[in-house]
Amino acid sequence: MREDFPFEQNSVIEAYKKFIDRSLLRENLKCTVEERFLRLMSLQSFAEELRKAPRKPISQNG
Question: How far is residue 27 from each of residues 19, 21, 34, 39, 40, measured CA to CA in Å?
């Protein structure tokens, strides 16, 4: 166990870490709280627009 990290490592968490893009987390942490909320609100607006959009049936032939 590292001295600067007093918790023992969890094998499940360690396994998931390889699938996480930490650069995105770092970029997000560079933003202010207000900037993060504005991004979230923008994403929520986009998601709402997607929900309202008409859905085209998926063709069986292509």
Answer: 17, 11, 14, 13, 14
By C-alpha distance, which of 31, 54, 33, 35 is closest to 43?
35
Domain ranges of the chain: 11-52
Q: pLDDT tens, 2-54?
A: 567 777 889 998 899 889 999 999 999 999 999 999 999 999 999 999 999 88
Amino acid at 45: S
Residue 47 has a pLDDT of: 96
Tokens describing residue 9:
């490592």
Exposed e or buried b for every residue in 46-58, given b needs 16+ CB within 10 A? eeeeeeeeeeeee
